[in-house]
Amino acid sequence: xxxDLVLNHVSRQSEWFRDYVEGIAPAxxxxxxxxxQTDLSQVVRPRSTPLLTPVQTQEGSRYLWTTFSTDQIxxxxxxxxxxxxxxxxxxxxxxxxxxxxxxDAIAYLWKKIGTPCIHLPETHEIVKLLRDFLTLVAPHVLxxxxxxxxxxxxxxxxxxxxxxHLVYQFSLPPLLLHAxxxxxxxxxxxxxxxxxxxxxxxxxxxxxxxxxxxxxxxxHGLIPEEEFSRxxxxxxxxxxxxxxxRDTDGSESPYELNITYFDALSDPEDPDMDRQxxxxxxxxxxxxxxxxxxxxxxHSLTATPNDEAAVRRTGHARAINRKRWDAxxxxxxxxxxxxxxxxxxxxxxxxxxxxxRHPAFHPEGVQRILDLGxxxxxxxxxxxxxxxxxxxxxNVTAHTVTVPIDRIPSLQKAGQGKELITGRTMKPVPRTLRxxxxxxxWIRVSPPH
Length: 449
What we know:
It contains 14 helices and 21 strands. It is an alpha/beta fold. Among the domains are: 147-357, TIM Barrel, CATH 3.20.20.80; 366-446, Immunoglobulin-like, CATH 2.60.40.1180. The strands form 6 sheets. A 6-stranded parallel sheet has the order 1-6-7-8-9-13, with helices on one face. It has a 6-stranded antiparallel sheet with strand order 14-15-16-21-18-19, with helices on one face. A hairpin with a 4-residue loop joins strand 18 and strand 19. Helix 5 crosses helix 9 (273-289) and helix 9 (273-289) runs parallel beside helix 13 (340-357). The longest helix has 18 residues, at 340-357. 38% of the residues are buried.
């Protein structure tokens, strides 16, 4: 059970905020009041909305810090009472069986005027404190940080193995999307090959979609600017939306692509649904094969299309990826094997069951990225106890690709292999292997007798 611990802010409808408005202790000191004439130009903004929101209180008008929106009022962690409130909340979650605590928007926790107010040393100290607290009272509980920022900043929340146990792999969703939209794995392979070794007891949470959009700040420095612009425009062509943030110079730039991952992998020039299904399943196979723990959004299991009606109804771009299924309608789709929903769901379950059976996919299993050219994304996973090796091959293109077996030593040396997804035994491993468009092969390698 994972529980979201939202430390940065509370709702404008909360009791704490109502008490603040009425001047009731202790909540009257839980928020951050700022003179609107203060120079806040250095503050890094994840949104384009105003940083300060006017609020009418018993003592008159006040301007409060609102990092994300006018209805999410930022908390003042410089007040120790706020920290102790959250330790109480954390204990409640643990008592209810929480196994993972997700620290929502943790990067923006500490505010200090005259600084960017992101990744401040005090924020990292709070994460360390929470880690120490869990080590004492609930060592079985894991901390997960949610920091939708460039990769180096993101993994800084591992600290020296003394902060988060888990960090979201935020660069993966947009990089993988780019690879499959362009049919070119170059930047995905380059990034994956550069990933550092993680502290003992730490790993990443791999994902492609979530209740939010696809964050693009983590793409910074990973693909050329012109490629990024094409990616953004491609989302618009596929019926998605682009959410913007305000930069320190006052301009705006994209921070999030609002679209379902399934429709993000459509092709406006070739609306072949079979091809879209294959492209989508390839994306999920890549995510499942990578070192770490997979996190799967419900709407990925069901290949949910864009919910444009929800966007019109709510006025919120994120609603496009938050469809509320009617249970009977969903069950009917799943029972009809010919529907896209059923096809993706059954194929996804097959991949998950395979992954669960093979220790090579353990989070601590060794990962080696194989550069086999721009048409393939390939990697090798080895079980922690060396009991098995799996070579994972993914064709990211719309054409059949011949895999260069001579560049994969483990396959060259193998006496035989087994392709896990189809169940086909390879005796011996062939000298050439052809992958159809967007196909995946997970080959378990057996040593020669």
